[in-house]
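hey so i finally got around to running both of the ones u sent me last week. sorry it took forever, my laptop kept dying halfway thru and i had to restart like 3 times lol. anyway pasting them below in the order u listed, first the sequence line then the structure token line for each. didnt double check formatting much so if smth looks off just lmk and ill redo it

first one:
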Amino acid sequence: MLGTGTAGLAAAGTADAMLGQSAAKAVIKNADGESVGSLRLEHGDPGTSKITVAVSGLPAGYHGFHVHTKGVCDPRSTDPSTGSPFFSAGAHFDLGSGTHPDHSGDLPALLVSRDGTGNATTATDRFGVNQLFDGDGSAIIIHAGRDNQANIPDRYRGMDGKAGPDDESLKTGDSGGRIACGVIEER
């Protein structure tokens, strides 16, 4: 039985406030600065973060969807090797030293319908919402291509003759360029 004292009510109120209350958000924009979606992060069940995204105006298909290490979405900051925008957001967010798909910020692929819209909700125990607000913040990135989760069987060989996933696949899942970015902000 729950206590009816003030302490019991305060604790219940705190738990209720944490569950379902938006703790962070992002407005997701394309390289032209147009809003293409939004992201909401909430405290989920103990030890999890709930992530909800809604997008429109994007190319149909699966897209890599990741939290990146820096809260900067400058479309003029381009990858020197590919010309992809939003290079300012840095690499995939990772609290450890793993490779893709085991970075803390690696999320399930985002499916966009033929009409350009997509919605997804997922939960992760890889990071807490508050961990995204380190000294340089964090961003959400939507990539141009699907994320192969570095699932390259050893029977395939790269141009170097090496079996399995190459270095690029272990960094990004071969998701391709960055097409949209949103700075994650506290609510």
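and the second one:
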Amino acid sequence: MAKQKQTVKLKEPVRIRFKQLSNGNQSIYLDYYTGDVIRKENYVGGKRKYEFLKLYLIPERTREDKAKNEATLALAKAIQSKRIVEVQNDAHGFQNTNKSRVNLLDY
């Protein structure tokens, strides 16, 4: 028998995750992982941060439900890719032009 190829699991800094709700829907949220930090012999794990998107998948009973879920997932993936770019820009020292530095009192 031939060996099966192992699939490579990509380590993403931002992942889409789902939480099952009591009414049967699934809530979509983003899971940020800042990475591992290794110092000498001691292992210090990374930190996690969660961002709840207030997007929900509904049980698919009709074609409209399936189309709505596909659109919701596409929106979640777009938000995920935007957050990945923001995390990478912060890691390399680029400024985010979308975030305003306006003082609320001055406004």
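quick thing i noticed on the 2nd:
The chain has a mean pLDDT of 83.
anyway thats it, ttyl
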